[in-house]
Amino acid sequence: xxxxxxxxxxxxxxxxxxxxxxxxxxxxSALPYHDWNERVTIQCYAPNAAARLLDGSGKxxxxxxxxxxxxxxxxxxxxxxxxxxxxxTYSAILSAExxxxxxxxxxxxxxxxAYNHMIMPLASARDKRTQVAWGKRDFRHCFGRDPEGMxxxxxxxxxxxxEIMAEEGIRFTILAPHQASRVREGxxxxxxxxEGLDTTxxxxxxxxxxxxxxxxxxxxxxxxxIAFGNLLENGGTFAGRMIDGxxxxxxxxxxxxxxxxxxxxxxxxxxxxxxxCLETVEEGxxxxxxxxxxxxxxxxxxxxxxxxxxxxxxxxxGVERWRFDCGCRAGDHPEWRQGWRKxxxxxxxxxxxxxxxxxxxxxxxxxxDPWKARDGYIDALLGGGGPGGRAKELLEMERFAMLMYxxxxxxxxxxxxxxxxxxxxxxxxxxxxxGEVSGKDVLGPFLKSLEGVPGNTxxxxxxxxxxxxxxxxxxxxxx
Length: 479
Description:
Largest sheet: 6 strands, parallel
Oligomer: single chain
Helix content: 40-55%
Distance between the termini: 68 Å
Number of strands: 14
Structural class: alpha/beta
Strand content: 5-15%
Number of domains: 2
């Protein structure tokens, strides 16, 4: 078999827990469900574990666990919520991973993810290292093995992040075709545009340390047509397009990466079209289903690639969506501007610098190596015990200082959105803890800085108002 098909689903929701209680509170915008995690689980994550396949009369003839036949990653913070809130779906996902390893020559379909969906090129080197370490450790906790691949949030990439991943033993990641800068196939380097890149083969990215990372660049046209076109209207057509994408001499991989929520949440019955596509490819004999780890073992890269650094899959301007008003946005108000993005990131960056300085100073009294202790704190979060007292306060302060960079805070159109309010809450909790461990007023200056982060409405004119409306009582602000 020389034609292979792989479909990757990036399944993710931002962390939604109240920073003070650790519980996901009722979200009115998710009604009639309690919150968005519950809503998307019922519409997408659970149906994909038992997707219906119908016969000619419309009766269910078979149920397919899509996760067992595809490549996928789940955000660690989402899986930790699901483990408690919906253990049946959680178990079905883990079971599917084991079955996929049996199906794909010992290579499970699951990939790890940098922990809380931080835009890695914009993160500090320390945060990058912890995000990768926590993502790897969480994956091992869930799936019982070390990950071969790791999904980068928003596919945002730079060389430093790839270096850290390689140090942790990660072998590959997936990027969009426009994130390749130039390739070399035995001869001289040549520049490539997205439409000129051969996405049917893997590439080797040589890193400054001498290590390397295998990169798969997904088929952008297929991904677009799955997520935004009409491919999910007919599973047979979907399968045909995937198979046709693997044309060429030698082993060819037709693959597409999309938000996993496409299959059932964004597109109703999308999980059924996916199931029909997977079944058709698996049983049709024209191509072979695979996952990235298996394909990489059978067909290692022969071509080299250089990445376009500081790029992502969802911003035409690189990673500007998460620090400037670049024009990329999502929401219902095209007239609104996102001038708040830059001052919000600058405010959080200043807070991070202060929090990290306090952590290093005070942490020296509690830990032999504060940053190594932070990297290891994931074991406590996964139920393995952990320090108490001042040491725990310091580590929680650092955890919230990473959660405040969750990418969704910048993705949409206004600071009043629940995603931005959530990251503001994490930042305020980090500042509050910093004040408690240092005896300094860290929260006050942070709140003052938020007054310079403008909103689009009179009701929520700045980020301070957005934060206090949601968490004022927790901050000791009433009225």
